[in-house]
Design brief:
- The chain is of the alpha/beta class.
- The protein is built from 12 helices and 21 strands.
- It has 2 domains: 161 residues, Lyase, Ornithine Decarboxylase, Chain A, domain 1, CATH 2.40.37; 184 residues, Alpha-Beta Barrel (TIM Barrel), CATH 3.20.20.
- Strand 7, helix 5 and strand 8 form a beta-alpha-beta unit.
- It binds ligand LLP.
- The site of ligand LLP has 18 residues, from helix 10.
Length: 431
């Protein structure tokens, strides 16, 4: 199986964290998101342990909650003593509602509005990751008005291309995010920030991209970022105490994707950072990382019911399901690959080549092409694996299709964490 939390039971049914997915489809209806809570907790602990051990005792992961944001996941993060990164006042609102300590929240984004900034500062947010000068000025003005000092990290682009797909490639010089080291703008950004009242610049941030499968791009980013930190110390006498290396560790979606050992990858990045610090006689900063996908993706499975199978003679076969791009837009957007199976016939031979199609009135609404399944029949339960990240978070009501519920599973026991949206919910803002 693709991940160790997936198995097939004696009935030939797919199980997630020990729970029979076919029984869950019956109990809660389809389409349905399942989320293995135990898995997410294990991953949080792996990151926390590894970062403390290999970087420094005060180093820690921040959960990049854009990957999956709802009350239950923030409660889980709180319970695991995770700090989180939020990218909007909406994410911040939910994190606060879940009872998270605002001091453990880092606010990202390249276009924070005045009201975002005020809302976050009134809530007592720990850090802003400041993207640009206009935003810094707004933070400074409000901090002065409130008579306080706001901690910030400055977002930089280290000029690293991790060679993943373009939509998630963010560390290059030509990027809408941050300030480039290479062009001298990063240094100017820092000098401007230092001159502003009401702001404490504690360090720097970069995020080079997503779906990265080895330590090399992180080590390269660390080289550039540490080079910048050393330059600031030598030229301006400023020693940064925080370095945030962003998220991006990859996840296995299909058999041909590599398996990535998070602990080992962090060990290699840590050893590299210690080497740089020794060579430059720089005190090891607090290292932050922002895993999103690698914390939650493999905890998720989506279940659908097969509605029909259509074979176009001489062309191909379409398997249509009761969900699609409204609950998982990633194939439509990025051609992202997924593994599918029939949850109720998990041992049958997968010898039927097909395109899995969603129910939207749009031909691009596909879950994937050239997929193999046992020949499906109406009523079969189709499972899409590894859907914990960027599925619920990117869901929409296109075609006025309602959003799916989320059922969380912990040690085999299931509970409803997000109920299914109703038609009335869907029009609740419409006057
Ligand atoms: N930190 C920053 C500043 C980010 O922009 C991101 C992701 C992360 C951390 C988390 O990266 P991760 O560990 O999840 O790779 N919707 C796309 C992914 C967009 C990622 C945006 N930023 C997808 O479905 O693949």
């Amino acid at each position: 199986m693709l991940h160790t939390n997936l198995a097939v039971n004696e009935k030939g049914h797919l199980t997630l964290c020990g729970a029979d997915t076919v029984a869950l489809a019956k109990k809660y209806g389809t389409p349905l998101y399942l989320l293995d809570e135990t898995r997410i907790r294990e991953k949080c602990r792996t990151y926390q342990r590894a970062m403390k051990t290999y970087f420094s005792p005060e180093s820690k992961p921040l959960y990049a909650s854009k990957a999956l944001s709802f009350l239950g996941v923030y409660r889980l993060a709180k319970d695991e003593e995770m700090a989180v990164d939020v990218v909007s006042a909406g994410e911040l609102y939910i994190a606060l509602k879940a009872g998270m300590d605002p001091g453990n929240i880092y606010f990202h984004g390249n276009a924070k509005t005045v009201s975002d900034i005020r809302f976050a500062m009134d809530a007592g947010i720990g850090y802003f990751v400041a993207d640009n000068e206009a935003e810094l000025c707004r933070i400074s003005e409000y901090a002065v008005e409130r008579g306080m000092v706001q901690h910030v990290l400055l977002r930089l682009t280290p000029g690293i291309d991790p060679h993943t797909f373009d939509a998630v490639n963010t560390g290059k010089v030509d990027s809408k995010f941050g300030s480039a080291i290479e062009t001298g703008q990063a240094k100017a950004f820092f000098m401007r920030a230092r001159a502003l009242p009401g702001i404490s610049v504690d360090g720097f941030h970069c995020h080079i991209g997503s779906q990265i499968f080895d330590e090399k791009p992180f080590c390269d980013a660390a080289d550039r970022m540490m080079g910048f930190l050393v330059m600031l110390r030598d030229e301006l006498g400023y020693t940064a105490s925080v370095l945030n290396l962003g998220g991006g560790i990859g996840v296995r979606y299909v058999e041909s994707d590599p398996y990535i050992d998070i602990d080992h990858t962090l060990q290699l990045v840590g050893a590299h950072l210690h080497r740089i610090c020794e060579e430059t006689d720089f005190p090891m900063p607090q290292i932050l990382m922002e895993p999103g996908r690698s914390l939650v993706a493999d905890a998720g499975v989506t279940l659908y019911e097969v509605q029909n199978v259509k074979t176009i003679t001489g062309y191909k076969s379409y398997v249509s399901i009761d969900g699609g791009m409204t609950d998982n837009p990633r194939y439509a957007l990025y051609r992202s690959r997924y593994t599918v199976m029939l949850a109720n016939r998990a041992r049958d031979d997968a010898d039927f080549l097909c395109t899995v199609a969603g129910r939207c009135c749009e031909s691009g609404d596909l879950i994937g092409e050239d997929m193999t399944l046992p020949k499906p029949e109406e009523g079969d339960i189709l499972a899409v694996l590894v859907t914990g990240a960027y599925n619920y978070a990117m869901a929409s009501n296109y075609n006025c299709i309602t959003k799916l519920p989320i059922v969380m599973i912990a040690d085999g026991a299931d509970r409803l964490a997000v109920r299914r949206q109703t038609y009335a919910d869907m029009i609740s803002c419409q006057l």
